[in-house]
Amino acid sequence: MLNHTGTITLETERLILRRFTIEDAEDVYNNWTGDSEVSKYMRWEHHRNIEETKLKIKDWLLRYKNNNFYQWAITFKDTDEPVGAIGLFVVNETDLCGDFGYSISRKYWGQGIATEALKAVLKLAFETVGFNRIESYHSTKNPASGKVMQKAGMKFEGLARQKYKSNVGFEDSNLYSILKEDYFR
C-alpha cells in the first residue's frame, strides 16, 4: 500500500517544487503552456490564451484535496517564478507502480532543471510514498527527454511503437524505468 502525501513542497539545490496557485497563471502561460514547441510531442495542446491556463490551474487546485494527487510548479529558489511543471501519477496502486510527466519552459531547456526536479520527485516516490517502480516514456523524436530520465538513474527498457498520439501524430516511444532497488543501490 502506498503512503500518499499529496503535493508537498520539495526543495533541491536550485529549485522549489510547490503547489500551483492561481496567481501563477500568467507565468505558466508565458513560460510554457502557451508555447506550441513545448507541447509538440505531448498529448496536451498549447493553450491559446491565459484563460485556458487558469482553467487547468483551477482543476489542479481542486485536485490538491486528494492525497494521491501530485502536481508541482517547478520554481527557482530566488524568483519563485514557475518555469515548468512535474507530476507523479499512480499507474497501479496494487503493484506500487507510478509514472511521471514534465514540461519545462523552452528558455530553460538544457540547464538540468528537469533532471533536478525529477530526482526530487523520485526521492519522494521511493523514500516516502513507497513506490516499487516508476516508469515513463518519451517520443523518440525528443531524445533530450530520455537524457533527463537517464541522468535521474532510469534504465532504458525498450521501444513502444505508436505508443500515444501527440499533437503531430502517433509517437514511437522509448520506455524507461527505475525500481526501488535501483534507487537505493
Architecture overview:
It is built from 5 helices and 8 strands. A hairpin with a 4-residue loop joins β4 and β5. The protein is globular.
Mean pLDDT: 96
User: What's the total helix number?
Assistant: 5
Q: How large is the share of residues in beta strands? A: 25-35%
Q: What profile does the largest beta sheet have?
A: 8 strands, mixed
Give Rg in angstroms: 16 Å
What are the segments in which pLDDT stays under 50 over at least 5 consecutive residues?
none
Briefly say what this structure is:
The protein has 185 residues and is of the alpha+beta class.
Task: Write the topology of this structure.
Blueprint (H helix, E strand, L loop, with lengths): L9 E2 L3 E4 L6 H9 L16 H14 L6 E7 L5 E11 L4 E8 L8 H17 L3 E7 L3 H9 L3 E12 L2 E11 H5 L1
Parallel strand pairs: 5-6
Antiparallel strand pairs: 1-2, 2-3, 3-4, 4-5, 6-8, 7-8
Helix pairs in contact: 1-2
